[in-house]
Every structure is written in C-alpha cells, then in structure tokens.
Amino acid sequence: MACRISELVLDCVDPERLAVFWAGVLGYVEVGREPDGGIELGPPGTGFGGPQPTLILSPSSDPRPAKLPLHLDVNPTDRDQDAELERLLALGARPADVGQTGEENWHVLQDPEGNVFCLLHARISPVGPGTV
C-alpha cells in the first residue's frame, strides 16, 4: 500500500483573491468551501480524489509568505515557458529572488500574497478526467 497526495493546503490572508489567481494558473475550479472560509480548488469534473491533488486556500491571520520549506512547481501544458511566464505575470504573479544565479532554466515567482512557486521549463501533458 502507498499514500497519495490528495490536497495541498496554503495558508493565506485572502482565500478569495488567491482562489482567483490559482484557478487561473492551474485551470482549476472551485470544488468546495470550508466552514472557516477556506476554498478548495480542483480540476474541472473531478475535484477531490481525482488524479491531481486539490488546492485548499485556508484563511490564516499569520501566513508565512516568501521562501518556505515546501513550494509548488508548475509546468506549462499548452504553450512554451516564455508564453506561460507572460500569462502568470498577467494573472498577478511577480518575480521573486531567493538567491538563484540566473543560470536556472526555471523562474521563481510569487503569488499575490508572496508565496513562492516555480515555473519549470518542461512542457508536460495536461491531465484530464479518467487519466491516472
């Protein structure tokens, strides 16, 4: 037996604002709301338990933005890295400096609340309903 990542939880000040951002980045939709104001996003038509983990934006008055021990990496699926970078910046991402040399083939970015994530170079296939 093994475990599988089913959800990623991101503490944030404004779940509504980050839901718009991350839904746009990942192509996710709202799949649920928590009683505490948290918002769960997931792939359209699958949601929790599907082939991809859902993202829960959990309200917190003390989130720790910037470089955390764990961060998200995203890859473009339908365009090259440069075009995807432009799209993410238009959604509200900002470049982040965490000590990279400039020789990396990925971009370090921040979401609108300062949470760091990376846009990787490789273009990967999208995951659709029924895909494992």
Give a structural overview.
The chain is of the alpha/beta class and 132 residues long. It folds into 2 domains: 1-62, Roll (2,3-Dihydroxybiphenyl 1,2-Dioxygenase, domain 1); 64-126, Roll (2,3-Dihydroxybiphenyl 1,2-Dioxygenase, domain 1), CATH 3.10.180.10. Helix content is 17%, strand content 26%. The chain is built from 2 helices and 8 strands. The strands form 2 sheets. Strands 1-4-3-2 form a 4-stranded mixed sheet, with helices on one face. Strands 5-8-7-6 form a 4-stranded mixed sheet, covered by helices on one side. Strand 7 (107-110) and strand 8 (116-119) form a beta hairpin. The longest helix is centred in the first third of the chain and has 12 residues, at 15-26. The radius of gyration is 15 Å and the shape is globular. The protein starts with 6 loop residues before the first strand and ends in a 13-residue tail after the last strand. The mean pLDDT is 87.
Please describe the topology of this protein:
Layout (H helix, E strand, L loop, with lengths): L6 E6 L2 H12 L2 E5 L5 E4 L11 E6 L12 E3 L6 H11 L2 E2 L11 E4 L5 E4 L13
Parallel strand pairs: 1-4, 5-8
Antiparallel strand pairs: 2-3, 3-4, 6-7, 7-8
Largest sheet: 4 strands, mixed
End-to-end span in angstroms?
17 Å
Strand and helix order? EHEEEEHEEE
Highest-level CATH class of the largest domain: Alpha Beta
Please state the average pLDDT score.
87
The side-by-side strand order for the widest beta sheet comes to 1-4-3-2
